From TrEMBL:
Matches recorded under InterPro entries: Nudix_hydrolase (IPR020476), NUDIX_hydrolase-like_dom_sf (IPR015797), NUDIX_hydrolase_CS (IPR020084), NUDIX_hydrolase_dom (IPR000086)
Domain Nudix hydrolase: 51-185
Gene3D superfamilies, alphabetized: Nucleoside Triphosphate Pyrophosphohydrolase
GO molecular function: ADP-ribose diphosphatase activity
Family listed: Belongs to the Nudix hydrolase family.
Protein name in the entry: ADP-ribose pyrophosphatase
SUPFAM superfamilies: Nudix
Record Pfam families: NUDIX
Keyword Hydrolase part of the UniProt annotation: yes
EC category name: hydrolase
Keyword Hydrolase: yes
Keywords recorded for this protein, A-Z: Hydrolase
GO biological process assignments: nucleoside phosphate metabolic process; ribose phosphate metabolic process
Length: 199
């Protein structure tokens, strides 16, 4: 297995930072590898702690009156919109489920009633492990209430989208869709029960 012999912090930002990893693999190849991370300090890096149990962010797969709740959000890395599930960072001292309820309210104005699912389906997973140590956990539930952007952060450019199966299929075929959204959305399109694959 490769060995890391040096880690240097390259940026000091609030939400995302870059670290340069210097290491050598079992073939003797030396690497200088840039890693994007939510870690504010070197001591918080997953490569240092080896603790993969806590999610950095939560992703919410929810149903509202037989429609799936999506957000169409502008993202700077692609200079365009991408369809995603409502999502956001888990704040310090907050549980995964508390973060999900808060983020759902902030991004959509809707209330979230969480499903009780096997923890296997809520386990934090890596997003794009070739460039980041970020982990996301998905939660599942039913949304209710009135859609509103009154609680949204001013930095976010979000359109709330309620999609039935036909519209969800069109989105998958024609639009930019985040990977962590695409798989459950394809299950929504093809399965008779929206949460059949987690129950």
């Amino acid at each position: 297995m490769a060995k890391i012999f040096s880690i240097q912090k390259k940026t000091d930002e609030h939400f995302v930072n870059l670290y340069e990893f210097d290491g050598i693999n079992t073939k003797g190849h030396e690497s200088h590898y840039m890693v994007a991370t939510r870690a504010r300090s070197k001591e918080q890096l997953k490569a240092v702690t080896h603790d993969y149990s806590a999610a950095d962010a939560v992703v919410i797969y929810s149903i509202y009156n037989d429609q799936v709740v999506l957000v169409k959000q502008y993202r700077y890395p692609i200079d365009g919109a991408v369809y995603e599930f409502p999502a956001g960072l888990v704040e310090e001292g907050e549980t995964l489920h508390e973060a999900a309820v808060r983020e759902m309210k902030e991004e959509t104005g809707l209330e979230l009633k969480l499903l009780d699912v096997d923890p296997l389906y809520e386990k934090p997973r890596f997003t794009s492990v070739g460039m980041t140590d970020e982990t996301n956990a998905m939660v599942y539930g039913y949304a209710s209430g009135t859609i509103s952007d009154a609680f949204a952060e001013p930095s976010e450019e979000i359109e709330i989208v309620l999609a039935d199966r036909q519209e969800a299929r069109r989105i998958l075929e024609e639009e930019n869709v985040a990977l962590q959204t695409a798989y459950p959305l394809s299950r929504f399109v093809s399965d008779e029960a929206p949460f059949g694959f987690v129950q």
